[in-house]
Amino acid sequence: MTTREHMPSWVTTLRWVGLILVGGIVLGPFLWALSTSLKVKDDVLRMPPKFLPWPLTVENYQGILTAGFPRYLLNSTIVAVCSVVVVVLVSVHAGYAAARYEFRGKSAMLFLILTGMAMGELSTVLPLYFFGTQLRILDTYGILILANSAFIAPLAIWFLQGYFRSIPPQMEEAALIDGATRAGALYRIVLPSALPGLITVSLVSFVHSWNEFILALVLTSSGTMRTVPVGIHLYLTDYGVDWGSITAAGILSILPVTLLFLLLQRHFLRGLTAGATTGF
Amino acid sequence: MSSATGSGPSSGPDTVATRWSRRLGEGLLGRPRGGRFDLFPYLLMLPGLLLVMFVTLYPIVFAVNYSLMRTQVFKQLAFVGLANYARLFADPRFQTNLVNSLFFVLVGVALTWTFGLALALLLRRQRWGNAILKTIVLIPWVTNQVVLALMWKWLLNGEFSPINYLLGLVNLPGLNPLISTAQALPALTIVNAWRATGFSLLLMLAGLSAIPVEVEEAAEIDGASRWKQLWYVIIPLLKPVSLACIITLTISFFNIIVLPMDLTGGGPLNSTEVLSLRLYREGFQYYNMGSASAITLVLVGLDLILAWAYYKLIRAETYYR
User: Fold this and answer.
1) B155 near B161, Cβ under 8 Å?
2) Rounded to two decimals, what is the model's pTM?
3) Closest residue to B24, CB basis, from A23, A27, A169
4) Superfamily of domain B92-317
């Protein structure tokens, strides 16, 4: 801030070169995939490569949209939305209890919840698969929603308890004095003020579930239960190496999450910084 | 940081939180009513606790149990003590897996943290262009790894790679890292750091914005050079955020599966087969649940030890909180 006015022009130039270089390194692979997805078959494996897709075609997109990809999109949406609902329901209550109440066993319970953050999905794949076979709920939305929400819950609880702590308790106390029940104080007073935090938790949960791969791969088996990442993963085995279709599917799978992220970025960032500073 | 702080750097957000919770402990909400047992907070906590146990306690009990058994798929044949572990650690392939994982995680986390900090320093001022780039860098982090892996596989293939074409234009030799036993693991590690940099950038920016302007101005007035400011002022003040960043990344990198699976498939010659990929193969290709459970516990153990070590390390050096 202090040196802003005195910045020599070569520094400004250097800054812009740096910005463009970083932007190029990050976006380059995405742009190459986008370009590939819009190319006609003969142009995909052409040397020297064509960087711009010309003649332009949407046949790759048409191809995957008639081949089962819509079903994968539907599955992913169902699993992600339901997981968000479960995570929000569970973490609002647990987070609130952790932020506002002192009770015996609280720190032990919180510790048990937080160990969930140290567990990788992979470590649970085997037990969950076994669990699924025992209860005969493999290959259903139910087990995917259960597994996904269980994974996101620790982070969500931790985040929300931090968020609740940042809300001054006076309003709740006033409501209680006015005769509100304790649950009423939570739902009517605290939740509305915690809306940005809830949006953050929902967004993070949605993105996590949408992108989740290994649980969806292992816990489902039929073609109609595949989520988007599993579907794309299996394209290689199902259709062979057809880069046009694979990149088209990839672009379609990125689109919803990227849009959501761009639209709600402000909430996402604000929420994350609020949680990070109380967390550690 | 919350607006209620504002009493200088010495009282961090922890202090505010503690003050509030103490006040609440005495106040209306937290007071045990009439000294009787209050069920309400337990009811609030219970659903979350049960849900999370499903992916913590249950898997660990399961893995401990199975790792001590000789198994046939999920059937337990006999108790064998630590034989599964002994066999694993004597297995050269497993030793390679372990070394690969350590390289992938330690180098990967170091790169990601460094990239994140460097970018955060570049982008911390509110200027046109910075906000856009910040958003762009976060895109790989919110993209699913299957797509990222296939994208890079397509980009790094030796024959039709646009990168090699561009290198050829300036008379440089082409790259084909994914089929080289020496280059595949570094390539995988770098691609993963590229993916995760957005996350570390975000945390570093949050950390930087929490450093009061006065602290840096004071250092500048005292005549500290930019590098000295970075090394003696900024990096130490970023330690709590760095800790959060490093722990999260370490756990996530140890458990990564899709990127190695779809980018290199563990090859060539197992040179990129990390622990997580081996675990998947033991479980779902060889159906050897005993070994897979043992690897699971090694993985969980590594996560916990590293998280604890980082925590201790940073606690020991953090004297200003």
Assistant:
1) yes
2) 0.85
3) A169
4) MetI-like (1.10.3720.10)
